[in-house]
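Researcher: Here's the sequence for the chain we discussed earlier.
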Amino acid sequence: IKRMILDGDNEKASRYLSKFALMIRMTLNHSKDIFVTLDENIEYLKAYLEMEQLRFDDSFSYTIFTSAEIDASETSFPSLMIQPLVENAIWHGLLPARHDKKIMIRFTQCQNTITCLIEDNGIGIRESEKLKKMNGAIHHSLGLENLKKRIKIMNEKYDTDCTLEIVDLKDVEKNKKGTRVTLQFNIINT
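Model: Thanks. This is the structure I predict for it:
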């Protein structure tokens, strides 16, 4: 916001500040609950993604897809779990990339399991780690560490059988770039 104001882009700074205030309100609301609806999670993600698009001059695009078998207004979903994964995709995968940057978030259901797939076409997790080492950055992902702790607690307390998998897309297909994150868990009846 400060940079936008110093650059004289007051309208952009005002829009960003409005989106940031919305994110703060939503974060406070979501932090009170362990589970919120998938609709609420998607609303939160859209607010976050719009804020980041404004911040980074629309340098990336995104799509959010929810399969037809999911009733997003009734499906309970862990609060504040997807945003840190999307943030990692943007900051560590997409921003260093030099091509058409995209992120796709997909929610599906198969029997009693909900899957959230986050896929970007950025530089990939291995390349990102290499860049951090080359730049001498000793980055410790607190968001990912906290997420793993939450998964452990959810599995112990709510029997969600929650799993998190992070794959460099080069390991899936030789000429593919980017990262795929898969978060799966049993449907939660709250």
